[in-house]
Amino acid sequence: MNKKTAISFFLGITLSLIALYFAFRNVPVADLIAYLGSINYLWVLPSTLIVFLSFVLRAVRWQLILNSNQKIGFWSSYHPLIIGFMINCILPGRVGEVARPVILKKQENVPFSTGLATVVAERIFDLFILIILFIFFLSTAKIDTNLVIEFGNYNLNSKTLETVFSGMVKLSVLLFAGIIIVGFDTTRKIINRIIMGMPSLLFFLGSSLKKKIQDKVCTPVVYIIENFASGFSFIKSPKLILICIIFSVIIWTLSSFTYYVFSLGCPGINLSFAELTSVMLIVCFFIALPSAPGFWGLWEAGGVFAMLLFGVSEKEAAGFTLANHAIQMFPVIIMGFISAFITGVDIRRVSYNK
Fold it and tell me: For residue 174, what is the DSSP state?
């Protein structure tokens, strides 16, 4: 581990510990430890298996998106995906999202911009499902406007939730519009012509300099756009879009199911599958805020906020959320390191795009 990676790793641990302090400073440590000791951890095994299955389906979905441009095998999509998620769990800045196309380029020679475009496309499917589910949640649930959970500089309440939701909707619209504009040949060709014609607007420059700018700047930009467009090839197939949506629904259903299965072994957590799906949704929206690696602290604060809405005590909510977070994260970290070992991927290098 080089100095840069070591600093980031220990910074991540420090941030996570500080975040956990803010999340649990109102919960007596003795009560939290006692509750964690009362959980039936036999339910960890089925929960972990479901987590693994959800990532297998994520890899298949990404493979389908990639195959619309370049055929790759299942393991060629699985290893970069799980390594990328693992990096997000241990390093700050969500660099795992960028590491995935870096690994894909090294392993399968897929252009970086093409791989990055497929990661964006995958995130669009996730956002689409989360937004649909959250709209349903808002239409059926009543959020106590007086309920506030303090976390560092954040006051997690109904207004924070609405703000994050609004931001995600706007981001989804922006990303979707970008995919449409770049993905279709007609609009992309117009953009490329505009880019290639920009040097001609610099009337005060000589023709040789204009040509140099066109060759050195405009042509590489057009090349990147074309590679991005390759990553969005799936939009030309309505059947593939439908299949990816179905996969996304199953993936998020399984994610909810991990919450429900683990809750069966947790005293005081008597919530239905629908209620625990709502808890998962609220956690997902809150962890969209800037946070420590692996979302430690903010995940717990969001989980406590969500479970208090359904009448769960703060001690039990805190204990369940902390343990469930570990179940969601640690298998990913282990699977990521196994994939890195199998593929010979240098996590240090891909983390910093070297």
Answer: H
